[in-house]
Amino acid sequence: MRRALAAAAVLALAVSGCGGGGKEPAANGPVEITIWHGQEDASAKSIEKLVAQFNQSHPDIKVDTESGGATADGMLPKITAALTSDAYPDIAYLYGSWAPNIARNPKTADLTEFVQDPAIKWQDFWASEREAITVNGKVIGFPAVVDNMVVLYNKKVLAKAGLKPPGPDWTWDDFRAMAKQSTDAKAGVFGATWPISGGEEAVWGLWPMVWQAGGDILTPDHKKAAFNSPQGQQALDRLRGMAVDDKSLYLDSSPAEKGQKLFESGRLAMFMSGPWVLPDLQAAKVDYGVSPLPGTNGNHETISGPDNWVVFQHDERRVKAAATFLAWLTSAEQQLVWMSDTGSLPIRESITKLSGYQDYLKKYPGIDVISANLANAKRVRPPTTRYPRVSAFVAEGIAQALLGKSDAKTALDEAAKKADAALAVPGS
Amino acid sequence: MSATALGATASQHRRQKDRRKLGENIAGWSFAGPATLVILGFSLIPMAWALALSFTDSDLMSPGRNVGLDNYRALLADPVFFQALRNTGLLLVLYIPSSLIAGLLVAVLLNRKVRGIGFYRTCFLVPYVVSATATGLLMGFVFDRDFGLVNGLLAKLGLPLQGLLSSPSQAMLVLTAIFFWTRFGFAVVIYLAAIQEISKEVLDAAAIDGAGAWARFRHIIVPSVRPMTIFLTVWGVIDALQFFDLVMTTTKGGPANATVTIVYYVWQLAFSFSTAGYGAAVAYALFAGTLVLIVAGLLLARRKGVTT
Question: Which domain of life is it from (chain A) (predicted)?
Answer without folding.
Answer: Bacteria
